[in-house]
Design brief:
The complex is a heterodimer of chains A (493) and B (563). Chain A is mainly alpha-helical and 493 residues long. Chain A has a domain of 211 residues. Chain A has a two-stranded antiparallel sheet with strand order 1-2. The two termini of chain A are 31 Å apart. The mean pLDDT of chain A is 91. Chain B has 563 residues and is mainly alpha-helical. Chain B has three domains: 220 residues, no CATH class; 246 residues, no CATH class; 26 residues. In chain B, a hairpin with a 2-residue loop joins strand 1 and strand 2. About 1% of the residues of chain B have low confidence. The chains are: A mainly alpha (493), B mainly alpha (563). Chains A and B meet through helix 6, helix 8, helix 12, helix 17 and helix 18 of A and helix 6, helix 20 and helix 21 of B.
Chain lengths: 493, 563
């Protein structure tokens, strides 16, 4: 049984989504989703511990040996990604029960969970597979279901947001499949390990750099790297709260994983960074994203949108770490995948609680909420501290490694940018704190607002607690991130 | 057990208890802490491994022990003083944050490395700000936020300096650093300087302290700046530049203190002046000077605490603190007035009062080391202390023109705290041997020789005489109504006039250059804001075509770049 875990990781949710689609009852669909995500979480943890003790797991699908058959290949990096995706997926589902009832049309209840599990399946598939064409297929599965999820938002603008995301996502996927096709033409293989072995033989040919270019743009679109981020703010703002919490914490993280996989494992660092100089492109874009998107976040009136821009800045931090191409930098980037998933998940869920009670996440509507919804706002502030990078939170751990990495390279201006943008995070979090805690609740509103129900609060606080726990004792996450970084760079432990 | 832990537990208990029980806890925690400190052995070290660094959050040194005792004493007095707080004063917030604040100060003086110091450094800021916010006025809210920003900045600087230092020397030890020419050392010095109230970095102090609650400001005056003095003694002893910084700090606040109307702000300026003496001592750096700096910090916590307590009582009982609104209070508040005068005599360094036996060590050290020319400045500053803290404070509050206010004496716990502080002021001044015995360096020094006593008495009497003459002649700045000069504004007001008096042309050139630079900066800033606000190019929703445009641009660039 256990040797089949890599395929079960994907197969169980895939089948579950089909069952969900048949069941037309939202409550039963929710139960199926709950069981599926938690099973997947257990499998992912199991895989992670196995990889830690036994090393890379290779699974031949249908018994066809690689490179002819499809191979599922789990190493420390993607086991870590699997844990992030399943953890967030399984924490968001309990939250979704009430939040979705409130924000999504009742008749679409079961379809919501179908799309959710499909998206979940797609993200897991991308992470687990060792075959580049499989990556594309799962990318499409996750994206198409994500468009549907976003379109279920209450606001009619959700439809346009979803449509724009669809166009941009399709362009990105097309670019990726063009890149994969070009690689296949040159090497005749789709298996990642096999590609990594064969590309050096043919890299003198121009086709490979062209494939590299298409992949760079396609993946940058998927992970919303500046200036290809334009689809993201609207998509996050108008999607239902549970969807934003799930997608913001997982989809872009998986895209970052794809970037690491393609450029570090398949093309190899020697080609990607010594010859193609990828980091020269990534570094300035990351810095602009960090600075500019933090600044934009300060001016936002809709707090969900503010957090969306903040996510763009945080993606910048990840790419910044990666573009250092050093153990410390990569560790910072990989650990921030996890850390940002925890804190941003918590923030969007806290906003989901606000949405549930007052039906708006406009900053002006949040006046005096510190007294009315103390636990919700405390969760927001707790996760906000992490976003700022206050010591004892996960945000501090990420920034610590990022700054260490920059110091190793003697990139002083980068250190300055990181510190300044941390202060900018203080400003935008403070704007919410000021309104929620120092302004009085509007009197004219006669209907009193009370705390969000436990069904929403408990999952939110689980993530807040996680973001503090791994901020105080980061040894588990840092060990994995550092080992994954060393593997990517081909440096032994 | 590290004292911080005791105060941390204490603050938790305080947060969850009420009424009588809380009062007992408030007084018991410093006492228990002191008992614990008795059993602490010098040289005790606690090590923690974090992120590959060996942190030393608890290291016992003689210097740290002295400040440890001092902070326990200060915490006890201030808690006693604040014991009466009732429902209207947010007692839970004030007591809890004050307890944690004292704990953070204790944590800082027992830190053995810069990272631990940083943690306590930031904790000092985050806990103390609630003592300002608890006042509950709009201006205290704003003031507190400014205070927090500046202190967080100081912490960020400290951390960056520490990291840079760790990177270049591989050591994060919190010991002697010195200005070795590295940027890291300068950054750390500036971080310390912000908390110590160095000139131009001091505005937070005079801005925030007068905005604190009547009891909160007593806490504020005891810890933050003294932690900074401790850090300077530990890391930058003997740096000559500190002598000049210290001398400037002793002199410039005097002018502001004379024209200031808010009596707690007068005390805040006076505080910078006193820290100036300590910084000068640190700069001289001999054993005698360092002992003087540390001893003066010890004495200052008590007498400045006493003065803030007496002004806090006035504010508490009358609701006013401006010199122009007060006067004649001695008729109904004779006990408070007496304590205030004791504090005033202590800060003015009357013989038999505490500052006399501590400040003189610094002045003597200055002469010994041949800094003859800074001696007159220090003398001037001493006379200035007498003028603004020794005479102005008690005179405007308790004597002067009769304001007609008939306020009662403050509650007994406040009187008790002031009584203990007053006794300590006289005790230290009369029997300096006890304080000298616990100073970190072994030095023989006797403050009571004929020359010193006579010089000081002459200084005091001529100083008092000149104030008297100025008042009789009507030259002395009166208690101006509605004057509420803010330090920042007086800089902008004073600085251009000084420049103009030196040379009008210079000022015009300077102003026009400044105008251009500010114009360019404002233009750039406006441009950034325009492009980043909700309708700006960076933030607005693009059409799908616009998004595709960027995809094409990027792909084109990549392909050109790669091929």
């Amino acid at each position: 049984m256990t040797q089949h875990l890599p395929v079960l990781q994907v197969a169980i949710p895939l089948l579950a989504s089909a069952v969900c689609a048949i069941v037309r009852n939202a409550r039963i669909a929710w139960l199926i989703a709950l069981a599926t995500t938690w099973t997947a979480f257990v499998i992912a943890l199991n895989l992670l511990f196995r990889v830690q003790s036994e090393g890379i797991i290779s699974y031949a699908l249908g018994g066809w040996a690689a490179p002819y058959g499809i191979e599922y290949r789990v190493d420390l990096l993607n086991a870590f990604i699997l844990v992030i995706v399943t953890a967030i997926g399984s924490v968001v589902i309990p939250f979704a029960l009430k939040s979705v009832e409130c924000e999504v049309d009742k008749s679409k209840g079961s379809l919501f969970y179908t799309a959710y599990i499909l998206c979940f399946t797609g993200l897991l598939g991308i992470a687990v597979t060792g075959d580049v064409f499989n990556v594309f297929v799962f990318l499409e599965i996750s994206s198409l279901s994500a468009y549907a999820l976003i379109a279920m938002g209450q606001d009619r603008k959700a439809l346009t947001a979803s449509f724009q995301y669809l166009i941009m996502g399709a362009v990105g996927a097309t670019f990726i499949v063009i890149g994969i096709g070009l690689m296949y033409v040159m090497t005749g293989t789709l298996n990642m390990a096999d590609l990594a072995a064969r590309i050096p033989e043919v890299r003198a040919n121009r086709t490979i750099p062209v494939a590299f270019g298409f992949l760079t743009v396609g993946i940058s679109l998927k992970l919303a790297l500046f200036p290809l981020h334009l689809w993201l703010p609207n998509a996050y703002t108008y999607a239902p709260s549970a969807v934003t919490a799930f997608i913001a914490s997982t989809a872009t993280k998986v895209a970052v994983y794809v970037l690491l996989r393609f450029f570090f494992t398949i093309f190899g660092i020697a080609f990607s960074f010594d010859i193609m100089q990828l980091h020269i492109v990534l570094l300035p874009l990351a810095l602009i994203a960090i600075f500019s998107m933090s600044l934009v976040a300060i001016f936002q009136q809709n707090v969900k949108r503010m957090m969306a821009y903040s996510s763009l800045a945080q993606i910048g931090y990840m790419i910044l770490g990666i573009s250092m191409v050093s153990v410390t930098g990569l560790t910072a980037g990989i650990i921030h995948l996890f850390n940002h998933a925890m804190m941003k998940g918590a923030l969007f869920m806290a906003l989901g609680c606000v949405m549930y009670r007052i039906g708006s996440v406009d900053i002006s509507a949040m006046r005096g909420l510190g007294k009315r919804m103390p636990w919700t706002m405390a969760a927001f502030v707790g996760a906000g501290l992490s976003l700022i990078g206050v010591p004892l939170t996960v945000g501090f751990i990420s920034k610590w490694y990022l700054i260490l990495g920059a110091l190793e390279q003697s990139w002083w201006p980068v250190v300055v940018v990181v510190l300044i943008t941390s202060l900018m995070a203080v400003v935008y979090i403070w704007r919410v704190v000021e309104v929620a805690y120092f302004k009085d609740y509007p009197d004219y509103d006669c209907k009193p607002v009370c705390e969000a129900p436990l069904g929403l609060l408990v999952p939110t606080w689980v993530l807040v607690a996680t973001s503090f726990y791994f901020g105080i004792d980061a040894s588990f996450t840092t060990k994995i991130a550092e080992a994954a970084a060393r593997t990517l760079l081909g440096i032994g432990l | 057990m590290p004292p911080f832990v005791i105060f941390l537990i204490g603050s938790l208990v305080v947060a969850f208890t009420r009424g009588y029980v809380r009062r007992v806890v408030l007084l018991a925690v410093p006492v228990l802490g002191a008992l614990n400190l008795l059993n602490v052995q010098e040289g005790t070290v606690i090590q923690v491994e974090v992120l590959g660094y060996t942190l030393l959050p608890f290291v016992v040194t003689p210097l740290g022990m002295l400040f440890g005792w001092l902070f326990h004493l200060a915490a006890f007095l201030a808690n006693l003083y604040a014991l009466h707080l009732d429902e209207g004063d947010h007692p839970g917030v004030q007591h809890t944050s004050a307890m944690l604040y004292a704990g953070a100060a204790l944590g800082a003086v027992f830190s053995g490395d810069l990272i631990s110091l940083f943690v306590f450094w930031e904790l000092l800021a985050f806990t103390s700000v609630f003592l300002i916010w608890a006042r509950g006025t709009e201006s205290s809210l704003r003031s507190g936020f400014r205070y927090l920003v500046i202190h967080v900045l100081s912490g960020v600087l400290l951390l960056s300096g520490a990291l840079m230092r760790a990177h270049s020397t591989g050591s994060i030890e919190f010991g002697h650093i010195g200005l070795d020419g590295s940027i890291a050392a300068w950054i750390i010095l500036i971080a310390f300087g912000i908390k110590a109230g160095f000139p131009f970095l001091h505005n937070w102090l005079t801005d925030a302290y007068p905005q604190g609650t009547p009891t909160g400001t007593v806490f504020l005056s005891a810890f933050t700046t003294k932690v900074a003095v401790f850090a300077l003694v530990k890391s930058f002893a003997g740096e000559e530049i500190l002598i000049y910084v210290g001398v400037v700090m002793t002199c410039f606040p005097i002018f502001y203190a004379v024209i200031e109307n808010d009596l707690r702000r007068v005390l805040s300026y006076s505080m910078i002046n006193q820290i100036g003496f300590m910084v000068t001592g640190v700069g001289i750096g001999t054993a005698l000077a360092l002992n003087g700096a540390v001893a003066h910090a010890f004495a200052d916590v008590i007498f400045k605490g006493l003065l803030f307590m007496s002004m806090g009582s006035v504010l508490q009982m009358t609701g006013r603190i401006n010199g122009s609104d007060l006067g004649g209070l001695y008729k109904t508040m004779p006990i408070t007035a007496t304590f205030c005068i004791v504090g005033a005599m202590a800060i003015s360094a009357f013989p038999l009062f505490s500052a006399f036996v501590t400040k003189s060590m610094i002045m003597a050290a200055a002469l010994e080391e041949g800094y003859v020319w800074i001696w007159p400045f220090l003398l001037f500053a001493s006379a200035g202390v007498l003028e603004h803290a020794g005479i102005k404070i008690p005179f405007f509050a308790f004597f002067g023109h009769d304001s007609g206010i008939r306020a009662k004496e403050p509650p007994k716990n406040m009187l008790a705290a002031m009584f203990i502080a007053a006794i300590l002021c006289i005790g230290i001044g009369s029997f300096p041997g006890f304080l000298y015995a616990i100073l970190p360096f072994a030095v023989e020094y006797n403050p009571y020789d004929a020359t010193h006593v006579l010089t000081q008495m002459q200084l005091l009497f001529f100083g008092a005489l000149s104030v008297l003459w100025l008042m009789k002649a009507g030259i002395y700045p009166p208690e101006l109504k509605s004057v509420n000069l803010d330090a920042e504004w007086s800089y902008r007001w004073l600085a251009p006039r000084l420049i103009r008096s030196i040379g009008g042309a210079m000022a015009r050139v300077d102003l026009s250059i400044r105008g251009i630079v500010i114009g360019v900066l404002q233009g750039a800033l406006a441009g950034i804001v325009r492009s980043h606000d909700t309708k700006g190019i960076m933030a607005r929703t693009w059409t799908t075509g616009g998004m595709i445009f960027w995809v094409v641009v990027l792909l084109g660039t990549y392909l050109v770049f790669y091929l």
